[in-house]
Design brief:
The protein is of the alpha/beta class. It has one domain: Spore Coat Polysaccharide Biosynthesis Protein SpsA, Chain A (Alpha-Beta Complex). The protein is built from seven helices and nine strands; from the N terminus they run E-E-H-E-E-H-E-E-E-H-H-E-E-H-H-H. The strands form two sheets. It has a seven-stranded mixed beta sheet. It has a two-stranded antiparallel sheet with strand order 4-9. The longest helix has 15 residues.
């Protein structure tokens, strides 16, 4: 069984959710608010490890460390995205599509290869996950897009990239399925119920009107 290292990208402006206390992590701080440049450097840094890279705007599921490491042990040599296409129902699939950087596993040595290609586009203006997706395709890599999601997006204004889009929460967060006592296959037909739960939880817990 591999030993995984956990890293959290942040600008230092946000207080992490209490759920991060489940893991020991190293903060990677973008003090200059240069999202692409800092991300490239961070990919180079974490490449020395089997690494889980998190952003600072998440809620981690219950039993996060146990759950994520069980999944990583199934796909130890693959990039695994644990939060992607938040509104879409699909079963776990391996392909070349990549979007969202909330929680991603990189096997040792892979991240620096992605960083090398991304560094060729220092003035890229779209989201850095778009450029990362381009690099993954250029390298001929695949990504395991895992379902259900092991993290939930807090959906606050994003300090890292100054990008705001209030469609970044998922109804397919594993904690919601557990609370309803359903499996992921059943979630397809109960998406509306899950979306109601999502909305209620954020109004109550985050005081969002």
């Amino acid at each position: 069984m591999r030993t995984n290292n956990y890293f959290v990208r942040t600008t230092g402006d946000r207080e992490l959710d209490n759920s991060y206390s489940q893991i020991e992590y190293e903060l990677l701080i973008d003090k200059e608010h240069k999202p692409l440049a800092s991300f490239i450097k961070q990919l180079e840094y974490i490449s020395d490890y089997d690494a889980v890279l998190l952003e600072d705007d998440c809620i981690l599921c219950k039993d996060f460390k146990k759950r994520i490491e069980e999944i990583i042990n199934q796909y130890p040599n693959k990039i695994i995205n644990f939060f992607t296409s938040p509104k879409d129902y699909f079963t776990t699939i391996e392909d070349q599509r990549f979007c969202y950087n909330q929680c991603t596993y990189y096997p040792k040595g892979v991240a620096k290869e992605i960083a090398k290609i991304m560094a060729q586009y220092p003035n890229f203006t779209l989201g850095y996950d778009v450029l990362e997706a381009r690099a993954i395709k250029q390298l001929g890599l695949t990504v395991v897009r895992y379902r259900p999601c092991l993290v939930q997006h807090l959906d606050n204004d994003t300090f890292i990239s100054k990008f705001t889009n209030h469609e970044r929460r998922t109804p397919f967060f594993i904690d919601y399925l557990d609370e309803l006592g359903i499996n992921y296959e059943q979630a397809k037909d109960r998406k509306q119920e899950l979306e109601i739960m999502l909305d209620r939880k954020f109004k109550k817990e985050q005081n969002i009107e």
